[in-house]
Fold:
Amino acid sequence: MKTLLIMRHATTEWGKSEADDHTRMLDQKGVLEAPLIGRTLEANDLVPELLISSTAKRAEATAMAVAL
Structure:
């Protein structure tokens, strides 16, 4: 059976930067959270075969950190 994982991006710089919504990056907490999410997925045998992400910088950064 296939499993669909839907994930939101890690914590961002909301209100801390002049960046528009699409270019907003992860904050320090988000940078630490994203790899932890990846390790948790792996520990629970939930490693995705396919990863599809928004092109928003925060989503791409989260996806890359989770995938590593």
Remarks:
- The first helix runs from residue 28 to 43.
- The mean pLDDT is 89.
